[in-house]
Amino acid sequence: MKYFDFAATTPLDPEAAEVYLKVATEYFGNSSSLHDTGGQSAALLENCREELAKLLGIDKNGLFFTSGGTEANFLAIEALLSVPPKEGNHIIAGMAEHSSIHGILNRLKEFGYEITLLPLNSQGLIDPEQLKHSIKPETILFVLQHVNSEIGTIQPIDEIAKICKDTDIHFHSDFVQSFGKIDVKRIAPHISSFSFSGHKIYGPKGIGGVYVDPILKWEPFFPGGSHERGFRPGTLNVPAIAAMTIAAQKIIGNLQEDTNKYQLLRKTFIETLKPIKEKVKIYQANEASQLANIVGLGISGIEGQWMMLECNRHGFAISTGSACQIGMQSPAKVTQALGLSTAEAKEFIRISFGHSTSLEDVVKLGESIVSIVHAFEAASVI
Predict the structure, then answer these.
(1) Backbone angles phi, psi at 59, to 5 degrees
(2) How far apart are CA 111 and CA 89, in angstroms?
(3) CA distances for 330 relative to 88, 103, 342, 345, angstroms
C-alpha cells in the first residue's frame, strides 16, 4: 500500500522512537516529583520546552504540553476567554476550521457567545477585508487555521494578527498543519495563542502543545491542577515530549529540502492528471499561499468516497478530508467554506505527500486515478 494521507498522520520517525524508548525506560520519573529521579525527568522536560520554544520563536514561559492538537485548541481558547481583552461575547472564526474548533464553538454558543463564521474565497483564503467588516465592538476573539488541513492553503496570518491587535481582539491559530512545514518563527510571537501536534511531524500520537502569550494572566479551565503551572492536569508524557522534540528538530532542519521536494511532487501529480483535466477541479491558492504537500481536488461526476475506495483497491491510501471529520460522516468543512454544491462537496478527495513519497509513486497514483476515471466513464456509457 502506497500511503498518500500524511495530512492525517505520519509514521513515527525511527530516531524519535529510539528516544521515546530510552526516556520511557531511563527517565521514567514523574516530572513533578521532588526526588532525584523526578528531577531528571523534569530537567529533560524543560530542555525540550526550551528547544521547542527556540524552534517556534516564542517565550518558553508560554509553552505548555498537551495530549494533542484537539486539547490544545480547547485549552487555548478557554484560556483566552478567561481574560477577554474587553467586554463582549462575540467570536469570529473561519468556516473551514478543524472539527475540534467547531466542537468548541458549538459549546460556547450554549453559554451565550455569538459566533460568526467567515467563508473562504475562490483561492481558499480568508478575506481580511471581510474580517474587518465582521468585527463588532463586542468582538473578543478570532480563530483561524494557519494552514487548511484539507486543501493546504496558507492564511495571511501576519496581516490578520495586525487587524486583531489594532482592534483589541485575541487571536488563536491552529498550527497543526503548518508546524514543521513552514517556518512559523516570524508570525508566532504576534498571536495570542496557537496549537501544534506531534503526530503530524513524525512524532508520537497523543502529544502536542500550545502557546499562550505569557503576558496574559489566564485562569485554568481545570482548577487545582499542579502540572504545567496549572494549565492542565495529569502527569506529563515526557517520553512522547522528548520524541516530539527530536522529530521537530529533524523536520525543521529539512524544511527547505522538503518544500522543494513537495513542490516537484505536486507539479508532477497535477501533470499526470492532464488526460482528465476537463473533469478535475483543484482547490488551491497561488504558490506563495499554498502548502505543496496537500492537494485537495474534486473529479466531476465521481463521489470522493468511491474514488478513495477504488484507489485503495489499486494500492493507494488517499482520503476524503480530515480524519476527524470523516468519523462524523460529514463533508469536509472546506467544501462548505468554498461555497461548493452538495454534489461538488461529495466529489472532494485529498492527496497528501510525506517523506517516503517518491516521484514514481506520485506518477503511479496519478495514472491510476486517470484509469479509474476512464473505467468509470466506460461503465457509465454501458
Answers:
(1) -75, 125
(2) 10
(3) 32, 14, 11, 10
Q: What is the pLDDT of residues 274-287, one digit of tens each?
A: 999 999 999 999 99
Q: What is the pLDDT of residues 27-60, one digit of tens each?
A: 987 776 668 777 788 899 999 999 999 999 999 9
Angle CA(115)–CA(116)–CA(118) in degrees, nearest 5?
145
Tell me the pLDDT band of 149, cut-offs 50, 70 and 90: very high
Share of the chain above pLDDT 70, in %: 95
Q: Which three cell numbers stand for residue 106?
A: 458549538
> Which residue is associated with the grid cell 499526470?
272
What are residue 118's DSSP bridge partners? 94
Q: End of a domain among 217, 237, 252? A: 252
324 is catalytic: yes
Q: How far apart are CA 14 and CA 20, in angstroms?
A: 10
Residue with cell 495529569: 234
Residue 164 per-residue DSSP state: H
As a whole number of angstroms, the distance between CA 34 and CA 241 comes to: 20
Residues contacting 326, CB < 8 A, separation 6+: 319, 320
The pTM of this model reads 0.94
How far apart are alpha carbons 85 and 373 in whole angstroms? Answer: 53
Residue 148 structural domain: 14-252
CB count, 10 Å around CB of 367? 14
Alpha-carbon dihedral sign for residues 284, 287, 289, 294: positive
Same domain, 279 and 359: yes
Residues 126-145: pLDDT tens digits? 999 999 999 999 999 999 99
225 and 307 co-located in one domain: no
Helices (H), 174-330: 238-253, 255-272, 304-313, 323-326
Q: Do both 150 and 272 map to the same domain?
A: no
Instruction: Supply the angle between the helices 69-82 and 99-110 in degrees, to the nearest 10.
Output: 40
Nine-digit cell string for 365: 497514483
